[in-house]
Amino acid sequence: MPVDNKNESVPRAIKDERTAHPVATSWRGVLSDIVRAFVRGDYALTAPVSGVSAITNELAEQIKANVLDYGATLIELPGATWETSCAQWMGEHWNVLVDLWTQEEGRSDLVLEVKVVECACDYSFRVYLVYVP
What we know:
The chain is of the alpha+beta class.
């Protein structure tokens, strides 16, 4: 997904089916918390992250296997993550791709894909997968 104005701060999510946009500033903390859990090896989010749907054991094992197969050590997200990560409105939800970083290489080829749904008073996040696109 090409990102429009990727270096700008975007406080709110943008509903645009034609173009990917930077990840909303208000979502970045939640997404960072998800990655922080993965860095600790908690792929099932046993310590829940507010607003994030539970991860099944099957999905947790798949994410873990993909990270281990990649062969590098995940690290917490630096600020530079938001320069290349993106969100795109898909009509009923946003598809968010967060570029992941590793100790060995900095920005890696791995991404975290999350579906974000607008709820009555906030947003709901559902981890889809960690993989190399």
